[in-house]
Design a protein that fits this description.
The protein is an all-alpha fold. It has 2 domains: about 10-50, no CATH class; about 50-210, Ankyrin repeat-containing domain (Serine Threonine Protein Phosphatase 5, Tetratricopeptide repeat). It is about 50% helix and about 0% strand. Helix 2 packs parallel to helix 6. The N and C termini lie far apart (about 65 Å).
Length: about 210
């Protein structure tokens, strides 16, 4: 165990508290103390790496929903370096950390984290959840759709725009059926794959009809 003196943060009393403490810290919505995070990983790597939420989410899933972490490229990179394999792990919904990041990302500050997750695991860009949804599907159905996020995912993997979910819908179907969808998002999806406009979903709908 690494021993530090003069620390300004409370040290977990036992190894059993390190994992739960990390998830609580990352899910708080506040910016974690980097010194504390580093200390816990250095002293209790297995506990921090292996602890899960009830939905079987690991610490990186949780971090992706914290704006203060997702928007801090240095801190986010640090978290991935502690356990590179975490980017490949799915929660009980079949979501990778990239799926969570795609849902949570809402502006340009989050782009470096998305790019890093894809760099570390390129197949994540086309990975499907239990509902057959890719990160791009989730990006266009998120509460705060971000044009830059959609463009980033498409630029790293254009063919993601052609993948259909469990309902036979590709990301453009999802975008077209959502109220007040930014036109720039629809344009980006179409420009990346012009042929996508001809695809029908499982009900026989095409994208233009959804706009009527």
């Amino acid at each position: 165990m690494i021993v530090r003196t003069g620390s300004t943060f409370p040290v977990p009393a036992t190894a059993e508290t390190a994992g739960p403490r990390l998830l609580v810290t990352l899910s708080s919505g506040l910016r974690p103390d980097e010194e504390e995070v580093r200390f816990n990983f250095e002293n209790f790597p297995n506990q921090c790496r292996d602890h899960r939420t009830p939905d079987n989410a690991n610490y990186l899933h949780v971090a992706c929903y914290n704006d203060k972490v997702l928007g801090n490229s240095e801190l986010f990179r640090l978290l991935t370096e502690f356990c590179p394999a975490a980017v490949r792990e799915k929660n009980r919904f079949g979501q990778l950390p990239l799926h969570k990041a795609a849902m949570a990302a809402s502006d340009f500050r989050h782009i470096p984290a998305l790019q890093l997750l894809i760099d570390l695991y390129p197949d994540a860009a086309t990975a499907k959840t239990i509902d057959g949804m890719t990160p791009l599907h989730l990006a266009v159905t998120s509460k705060c759709v971000c044009v830059e996020v959609v463009q980033t995912l498409l630029s790293r993997c254009p063919r993601a725009g052609l993948i259909t979910d469990a309902y036979g819908q590709c990301p453009l179907h999802r975008a077209a059926s959502k109220a007040r969808m930014p036109l720039e998002v629809v344009q980006a999806l179409h420009e990346a794959n012009p042929a996508v406009i001809e695809l029908k979903d499982s009900k026989g709908y095409v994208h233009l009809l959804l706009f009527e």
